[in-house]
Amino acid sequence: MRALLRSTAAAVLTIHANTKLKYKLMWAYSILFIVSILSVGMTAYYHSRDFMTQSENNAAAQSMIQLHNAMDSFLEMYFNKSEMVFFNLQLQKHLSAPHKEIDDLVYTLKDINDIVNQIMSDVKRPYLKNSYYFGGNIQLLLYPKNNTLFSDGQTIFRYDEIKEEPWNKRMLETDTYFTWESGVRFSNQNYVALDRRLIDFGTSTDLGVMRLLIPVERIQNIIERSIGHSDYLLVYSDQEEHTITSYGPIQPRSAGFQELVKQLDPNSGVTEVTMDGTRYLAGVMKSEMTGWKLVYMIRLDNITNKVSRITYSIIISMVLSVVLCIFIALLISTYMTKRIDVLVRKTDLAKQGNLIVTDVIKGNDEIGRLDKNFNSMMKRIHQFIEVEYKSQLVLNHMKLELLQEQINPHLHYNTLAMIASIAHKSGQTEIVEVTNHLIDFYKNMLNKGRLIIGLTAEFEMIRHYLELSKFVYSLNLDVIFEEDDDFLNYYSVKMLLQPLVENAIFHGIMPLKQGTIIIGGRVLEDAIELYVSDDGVGMPEPMLEYIKMLPQATDDRHGYGLTNVFRRLQLFFGGVVPV
User: How far is CA 90 from the centre of its chain?
Assistant: First the structure.
C-alpha cells in the first residue's frame, strides 16, 4: 500500500513537474479565486443578514423617534398658542371686569374674538390651508366665570356648562393649570383637547377655563406623511390606554395587542416580540409633554424577505464570479506564460560567464529553465549593483558638496553695500554691530569645512542672519525662537534653515516691511521636526500647490531655496523628505 502511494505521489509530482506552466497557473488562480469568492460570499451573506436586521431595527427606531418628535412638536406648537392666550393681559382684563353696558359688552366680545382669532390663526398664506400641520379646524373655547359675559356660541360659553365635567373636576382636584385629554367630540368631529385654567395675574383669581381643540385628523396626517409606507403598524394612545388614532391593519383593543404593550418598556428601543403567532419588531415611546404613548410595530417577515433577496443576489453573484474567475485565470496564465517563454529564450541567449550554484528547482518546465538562467545572472547583477551603489555614493557626495555651496549670495552683497552706506553716514556703532553679525554668521556657516553642525550652532547662525536682515532691509521684525533643551543636542546638515528663513523674509515680510517670524523645533517619536512660519502676506494657491510637488517639479524660476533643502537632506540621509 505504501509502495502504491509512493509511486502514485511520484507520478503526480512528475506530471506536475512536466506540466506546462500555463495550466499550473490557471488551476492555481482558479482555486485561489474560488476559495476567496466562497469565503467572501459566505461572510457577505452572514454580515448582510445581520446588517439588514440591525438596519431595520435602527430605521424603525429612528423613524419612530422622528414621528414622535414631529407629533410632540405639533402639540407643542398649539401649547405655545395656549400660552399666548393664557398670558394675554388684555384678555384677562376682559374676563375679570364686570360689563353692565351693552356697548361695553359688545366691544368686549368683539375684542375677545379678535384676540383669539389673531392668536389662533393657523394660516397666513393660502397655500398652507391643506398642509398636514395646518389642515382641519382648530377650536378655542373660553368658559369664563364672569356672569356678565354671555355665550356667543362660537368662542365664549358659560362656565356652568362644563362645571361638572370630569375633565374640569380633575383639573381642579389635582390643582394643575393644564391637562391633555383625548376622545373629545365637538361638532361631530374627533379632537384632542388642551384644557387650561385662566388666572388673573393681578389678583390671582380663577377666571375660568380655556379649552383648545385639535382635530385628530391632523395627527393622522402627520403619521401618514411621516411613515410613507404600509410596513409599520402604529397605535397612538393616551395615559388610560384609550386609542387616539392608529395606522395599519391592527386592532388596538385586542387581547394580543394589550399583552404586547405590557411587554414593552417605554423609550427603550426596538424589541422582538410575538403577537398572535406573528413575530414583530416593536417599541413604545412615551411623550414627556402629554404622557401619551406611541406603539410601533413591523413584521419580521418583511425583513426576512429583504434578506432572502440579498441571499439570492449573493448566490448568483458567486456563481457568475466563479465562472468569470476561471475564464480570467486562463487568460492571465496564457498571458503570463507567453511572456515567460520570451524571457526564457532571451535569458538563454544572454547567459554568459560562470554559473552561481544554488538550489535548483526540479523539473523541465518553464520555471525550471528560468531558475537555472536566473542563478547564472544573479552574481553578475550583484556585481553591477555593488559598483553602481558605490558610484552613486560618490556622485551623491559630490552633489551634496556642490549644493552646500549654492546658498543664495544676496545677503552677502547687500550687507557689504549696507556697510558702505553706514560708513558714509559715520554710524560707527552700527558698522561694528553689522560687521560682528556678519562675521559670526560666516563663521558658523563655514564650520571648518564640515557638513554637519549642531542645532544650537544652526539656531545661533539664524539669529545673526535675522539681525543682518533687519539692518539690510530696514524691517520692523519680531523673531520668536521655540526650541526644547533636548532638541538642541541633535545635529543636522548645516545651513538647513537659512533658505526657509530667507523665503519667509523675502516673500512674507518684505512686502509689508514688518511682521513676526517663528522658528522652532521639537523632538518627535522617531524624528526631528523643524519649522519656520511668518504672518506676512501669505502664499497664493497656485504657489502652494507647486510647493507640494517639490522637489520633483522644480524649475529655474521657482522653488530653488526649498529644493536646495530637500535635495541636501535626501542626498545626505537618503529617502524622501515629506512635504
Answer: 52
Cα torsion through 387, 390, 396, 400, rounded to 10:
-160
Could you report the per-residue pLDDT of 341-376, keeping only the tens digit for each?
655 655 654 555 444 444 555 666 666 666 667 666
Asked whether the whole model's pTM tops 0.90, one would answer: no
Residue 516 pLDDT greater than 90, yes or no? yes
**Which residues are registered as beta bridge partners of 478?**
516
- Give me the pLDDT at residue 354, please: 42
List the grid coordinates of 406.
549654492
β-strands 514-523, 476-483: how paired? Answer: parallel
The DSSP-derived string for 471-487 is: HHHT-EEEEEEEE-TTG
Tell me: the pLDDT tens digits for 408-445? 444 554 565 566 556 556 565 666 566 666 666 665 55
Name the strands in the sheet holding 514-523, side by side, starting at the edge strand that comes first in the sequence. Answer: 476-483, 514-523, 528-534
Residues 516, 534: contact at Cβ < 8 Å?
yes
d(CA 67, CA 141): 28
The rounded distance, in Å, linking the Cα atoms of 159 and 198 is 12
142 contacts 112 by C-beta, under 8 angstroms: yes
Strand 278-286 with 271-275, pairing: antiparallel
Return d(Cα 454, Cα 464) in angstroms, integer.
16
